[in-house]
Amino acid sequence: MTDSHALRSMTPMLVGAGALAVAGLVAFTWAARTSAPQPVEGALQVAVTETACAPMALTVPAGPASFVIRNDSSRPLEWEILDGVMVVAERENIAPGFTATLTERLKPGTYQITCGLLSNPRGTLTVTATAASEAARTAPPVAEFIGPLSEMQVRLIQAGAALERDTRALAEAVASGDLASARAAYVTARADWARLGTATGRASDLVNRMSPTAAVLARREDDPGFTGFHRIEHGLWSKGSTEGLEPVARSLAEDATALRARLRGITLAPADIAADAARLARHLAEGQVRQGVNLYSGEDAAEFAAALDAVAGAAQVLSPLTTAAAPDAAAGVEAEIARTRTAIEAMSSDPSPAARERVAEGFTALAGALDALNPALGLEA
What we know:
- Among the domains are: 39-129, Immunoglobulin-like (Sandwich), CATH 2.60.40; 147-263, A middle domain of Talin 1, CATH 1.20.1420.
- The protein has helices at 16-34, 131-137, 146-176, 179-195, 204-210, 228-238, 246-264, 270-291, 301-325, 327-347, 353-371, 373-376; strands spanning 44-48, 53-54, 57-61, 63-71, 77-83, 86-94, 99-106, 109-113, 123-128.
- Helices cover 53% and strands 15% of the residues.
- The strands form two sheets. It has a five-stranded mixed β-sheet. A four-stranded mixed β-sheet has the order 2-1-4-7, with no helix packed on it.
- It comes from Paracoccus salipaludis.
- Belongs to the EfeM/EfeO family.
- Its main location: periplasm.
């Protein structure tokens, strides 16, 4: 298993404006190569402009639903389906002028859809009940999953405690004005954040405060909404100073405390364990790996290794069930975890676009392998 703390001394490869330019080029190149979706029969067409979605209201029956999202704005965007503060599904890194397809199995209810910038109004998605969805809703719980669900809950609470502790340490380092210590504390706290990747989609309000990127804000780095991790990262690396960051770091630590408290009350269904892990792997592959996540420091390899730990942890929780019910599917997941870990280790010394591509391919294949677990366990709705 990769020791993320051993990677703190990794020399940043992408700094400041140069990092932004390279990341933007990688993101656009990938989007141009992959954004043309295969036709999906019955898919709903959604266009995202500078200020809204067209249409702003959608209706689909429960079950598998496909959407073709076209970016008619001037910036790369991500499109999300939200249930309150929980991200149900998302498609990242859609370049201007391109389209992407999202297919997700949806339960009955009323959801929100994001429409570009965080400050833009959200649309609505109504999912109507069907006979099949009603049958699934009334199905009895699966007793065999009590153990895995409890273990997953403990893992998330422990990860939340680590994030709370290490964001406090980051705030103290920033307050002391010790740039080197603050940078090291940032890398440690970001790894904690990545290990919570299977759960942060359930707290999009906190995520939008703790880890917004400048790209989704109207005024980018000068936007008042540029808070949390990346605001601190921008100061520590691009400006080379802790000046003005203490209140930002204190607020980040307070949000980490709020996230830890929320994790204690999280309710997981049996199908969520594999589905959340697959969603995280796909999220990384489609956006963060190729375009970069820590654009000012270049400290990405440790974070991707920690995110892989989160995915591997979910697979480990399910392992007693999957190895018995579907040994080939379980072995496929383990093989893709190992392949992706090897690619991340290589990327730590070679953060080139080609190396990032191999990591992204690993996470994509891993997401596909995880997708096979729920059907194999009889959890497909």
